[in-house]
Amino acid sequence: MPAVETHGFYTENSEGSRFSGYQLASEIRETLAKTESILEDLTIWYAEFQASRVDPLIREAAGRVLEYCTKQLGISWPVSLVWVEEEGPEDRELAKGTEGRFWNSYPSDVKLFGWAQYMGDKIYVVHDRDVWDVMRTIAHELKHIRKNEMEKEAREADAFAYADQVISDIQRNPSLIGY
Ligand SMILES: [Zn+2]
């Protein structure tokens, strides 16, 4: 048992050993760094995925629903699709800090299908999802892209409702998007 020092302030860790304030500060910094690295490990990154490698059926359906909804919503500027996929851990070091790598979620989040910037001209779509989910995502995001003064929650409900409507219309009548 080491002699108890009489200067500085002290606290006890779980094992009951003593740390001076300075040691404690460095422990805290270390813990924060560890927490950061754990969060980084838990973060799901989405990296750009070459359009040419996307399942052609999905790409085709996506293009058609994009055109259909853009017209229907009266969006006057061109909107393009950016295909993304979850980045594997093996790509992580390579991809860090490069463009075309997009942060998004944690495993505890709801499953991500896509995102877009309000009034933007790009929709980010996770490519390896069910074709209906991909189409629904594009309709949903296009509704967001269009100017909308609603509160955030109402906007979300509005986008979901619009996407559901589009999908049910297309399911009833595929010729709406030329099938
Ligand atoms: Zn949304």
Short description:
This protein is an alpha+beta fold.
Structure description:
This protein has 179 residues and is α+β, with helices and mostly antiparallel strands. It folds into 2 domains: 25 residues; 133 residues, Zincin-like (2-Layer Sandwich). It is 46% helix and 17% strand. The protein has 5 helices and 7 strands. The strands form 2 sheets. The chain has a 5-stranded mixed beta sheet. A two-stranded antiparallel ribbon has the order 1-2. Strand 1 and strand 2 form a beta hairpin. Helix 2 runs parallel beside helix 4 and helix 4 packs across helix 5. The longest helix is centred in the first third of the chain and has 22 residues. The radius of gyration is 24 Å and the shape is elongated. The N terminus is likely disordered.
List keywords for this structure.
binds zinc ion; 179 residues; two-stranded antiparallel sheet; disordered N terminus; alpha+beta; Zincin-like
Number of helical runs?
5
Shape, please?
Answer: elongated
Q: Which residues form runs of ≥5 with pLDDT under 50?
A: 3-7
| Rg | 24 Å
> Which architecture of the largest domain per CATH?
2-Layer Sandwich
Could you name the CATH class of the largest domain?
Alpha Beta
Secondary structure layout plus pairing:
Elements: E1 10-12, E2 18-20, H1 21-42, E3 44-48, H2 56-73, E4 80-86, H3 89-95, E5 101-105, E6 114-116, E7 122-126, H4 131-145, H5 152-172
Parallel strand pairs: 4-7
Antiparallel strand pairs: 1-2, 3-4, 3-5, 6-7
Helix pairs in contact: 2-4, 4-5
The protein binds zinc ion.
